[in-house]
UniProtKB/TrEMBL annotation:
InterPro entries: NAD(P)-bd_dom_sf, Sc_DH/Rdtase_CS, SDR_fam. PROSITE patterns: ADH_SHORT. Coiled coil: none annotated. Belongs to the short-chain dehydrogenases/reductases (SDR) family. The lineage of its organism: Bacteria, Bacillati, Actinomycetota, Actinomycetes, Kitasatosporales. Keywords: Lipid metabolism, NAD, Oxidoreductase, Steroid metabolism. One of its GO terms (molecular function) is oxidoreductase activity. This is Short-chain dehydrogenase. It comes from Streptomyces pluripotens. One of its GO terms (biological process) is steroid metabolic process.
């Protein structure tokens, strides 16, 4: 028996990275999965491989969400889970950040999460689950990613409010806060077809050996396990909470 047997779950930004691993794991645990992304070729190929459905969805658009919800209901008749995973990152000092760039990150990360809950929750089965992808930077600052950090802090606020408002329908809403995870977002070399994935992973581990108590970068498969916990009955009494998965990075600094 799978942990998600009979459940229908939408995962956004699922064409690659953490969303891909969530889609793979959820499918393996018996869920019907809707892979939603703007990367159509990759998303369609993944959906075909794992026996899921693909929908094109730009999470920052209301019309995109309307169509994704309608397509899910057409294909499976119900929605039991949503993982708001899609996100983008831009590097800039706050005072150097153009307003357009700030608004672009807000539109995808923050508005995307808001619109996802707004579109899906009314259509969701009572007792459903929502997992919002925040970040380590939702709970602390990090220079050069101020826009991103602002949106991830906002996602925690949205998560807490949604948990309160949806608890009457037993819909649980939680957030995951990954530290450094080895995906194309934090390791763009993963997108280079000529790069050796093992080698780029090792280079990232070298960087984080000094920063992270567990001495390595996280794997998207590990984040997927946390998303599974929060989507399955294993977390039946948990709602409105942020869950940090960061190898101990946020625990503090070591002086020896
Ligand atoms: P990634 O860049 O590999 O994947 C992000 C996915 O989101 C891609 O498939 C991309 O096409 C999709 N996407 C981007 N804009 C979209 C839009 N407008 N509509 C729909 N899909 C869109 O990165 P990842 O690491 O897998 O990121 C997944 C989530 O985890 C993001 O929310 C990210 O902010 C968060 N996160 C990542 C890290 C990390 O170190 N990798 C750390 C903390 C949080």
């Amino acid at each position: 028996m799978g942990k998600l047997d009979g459940r229908v779950v939408i995962v956004t930004g699922a064409a690659r990275g953490q969303g891909e691993q969530e889609a793979r794991l959820f499918r393996a645990e018996g869920a019907q999965v809707i892979v939603a992304d703007v990367l159509d070729d990759q998303g369609e190929a993944l959906a075909k491989e794992i026996g899921a459905a693909y929908v094109h969805l730009d999470v920052g658009t209301e019309e995109g969400w309307r169509q994704a919800v309608a397509a899910t209901k057409r294909a499976y008749g119900r929605i039991d889970g949503l993982v708001n995973n899609a996100g983008i990152l831009r590097f800039n000092a706050l005072v150097d950040t153009p307003l357009d760039e700030f608004m672009q990150v807000v539109q995808v990360n923050q508005v995307g999460c808001f619109l996802g809950m707004k579109a899906v929750a009314p259509e969701m089965t009572d007792g459903g689950t929502i997992v919002n992808t925040a970040s380590y930077t939702a709970l602390t600052g990090m220079a050069a990613v101020g826009t991103y950090a602002a949106t991830k802090h906002a996602i925690l606020g949205l998560t807490r409010v949604a948990a309160l408002e949806l608890a009457g329908r037993r819909i649980r809403v939680n957030a995951i806060c990954p530290g450094a995870i080895d995906t194309p977002m934090s390791n763009p070399a993963r997108l280079d077809p000529d790069a050796d994935p093992e080698e780029t992973g090792r280079a990232l581990d070298d960087l984080y050996r000094r920063l992270v108590p567990l001495g390595r970068v996280g794997r998207p498969e590990e984040v997927a396990q946390l998303a599974l916990f929060l989507t399955s009955g294993d977390s039946s009494y948990i709602t409105g909470q942020p869950f940090v998965i960061d190898g101990g990075w946020l625990a503090g600094v070591s002086i020896i």
